[in-house]
Amino acid sequence: QVQLVESGGGLVQPGGSLRLSCVASRRLFIISVIGWHRHAPGKEREFVAAITSGGSTNYADSAKGRFTISRDNAKNTVYLQMNSLKPEDTAVYYCRATGGPWDYWGQGTQVTVSS
Q1: How far, in Å, CA of 33 to CA of 11, rounded?
Q2: 5 Cβ neighbours under 8 A, 6+ residues apart
Q3: Taking every pair of C-alpha atoms in the chain, what is the biggest distance, in angstroms?
Q4: What integer pLDDT is reported at residue 113 of this predicted model?
Q5: What's the half-sphere exposure (Cβ side, CA atoms, 13 Å) at 55?
Q6: pLDDT per position in the chain (115 positions), as tens?
Q7: What's the confidence (pLDDT) of residue 112?
Q8: Which of 20, 106, 103, 31 is nearest to 68 (CA)?
Q9: In three state form, how does the secondary structure of the chain look?
Q10: What confidence score (pLDDT) does residue 2 get?
Q11: Would strands 109-113 and 10-12 be described as parallel, antiparallel, or unpaired?
Q12: Is the CB of residue 105 less than 8 Å from the CB of residue 6?
């Protein structure tokens, strides 16, 4: 049973933008904190941003001022708008839904920032 599905990754030049989408099951969407994490080769997986069911947001320092997380309640979707992308943003980006005893991850979407 698929709970989270990411999309929107791709290849972009430095300074460019991408918008990632995470579609969640309805039940999961309305009761979870949904966030984005990323995993770059040779590095630990790291937190990027998260949004609560009430719309409160939290960002990693590396994302502040460049990335924006938002949610569309009608579409059960959380977005990550990424602007001013840098080569060091290259990673697989994962959507994560947490709350209470549950912790679900999506399959990931590749973001590559390169000229």
Answers
A1: 28
A2: 22, 23, 95, 106, 107
A3: 42
A4: 98
A5: 2
A6: 668 999 999 999 999 999 999 999 888 888 889 999 999 999 999 999 999 999 999 999 999 999 999 999 899 999 999 999 999 999 999 999 998 888 999 999 999 999 9
A7: 98
A8: 20
A9: CCCEEEECCEEECCCCCEEEEEEECHHHHHHCEEEEEEECCCCCCEEEEEECCCCCEEECCCCCCCEEEEEECCCCEEEEEECCCCHHHCEEEEEEEEECCEEEECCCEEEEECC
A10: 63
A11: parallel
A12: no
